[in-house]
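Quick one, tokens below:
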């Protein structure tokens, strides 16, 4: 953990806090706060959940929403910190880190587009789901709102306004559907 914190700092991050040698709180160069914790060799990826007839789904991706001016720096930072291979995404504003086997969550980097790109890196969770439309309907019935619909994902907001996405990636494999 200390080695990872030292590496993060050498790559431009800032240590914000340390909590009883259990957690090191760090800000990426673009201001995204994350925690470093001990890894005990866990390699089991949780099985997808099945909810009320909406098919299988699983939280499988953390999407970092990055202002355009910080995109290349954050991209380099996360690739160097994790040691994972950086890959181009399906669209020019996306890049992702190829996760090793046994790691349950993929890391997607998204260059924000539009006038209101902000000045700090933020993040949202993406859920891979077998039936995007049925799961969106279920989430709406439980208080979420649909804020955008695209061919391969639906942008949702939970009842407090935090955004997340439902994607057409396979909840078992994480693979995107072929166009």
């Amino acid at each position: 953990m200390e080695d990872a914190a030292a590496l993060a700092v050498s790559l431009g991050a800032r240590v914000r806090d340390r909590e009883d040698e259990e957690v090191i709180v760090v800000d990426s160069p673009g201001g995204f706060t994350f925690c470093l914790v001990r890894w005990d060799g866990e390699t089991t990826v949780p099985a997808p959940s099945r909810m009320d007839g909406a098919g299988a789904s699983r939280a499988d991706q953390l999407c970092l929403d990055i202002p355009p001016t910080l995109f290349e720096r954050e991209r380099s930072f996360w690739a160097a910190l994790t040691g994972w291979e950086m890959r181009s995404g399906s669209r020019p504003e996306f890049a992702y880190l190829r996760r090793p086997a046994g790691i349950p969550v993929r890391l997607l980097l998204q260059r924000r587009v539009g006038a209101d790109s902000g000045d700090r890196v933020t993040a949202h969770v993406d859920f891979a789901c077998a039936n995007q439309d049925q799961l969106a309907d279920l989430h709406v019935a439980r208080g979420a709102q649909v804020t955008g619909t695209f061919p391969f994902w639906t942008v949702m907001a939970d009842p407090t306004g935090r955004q997340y996405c439902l994607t057409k990636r396979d909840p078992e494999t994480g693979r995107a559907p072929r166009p």
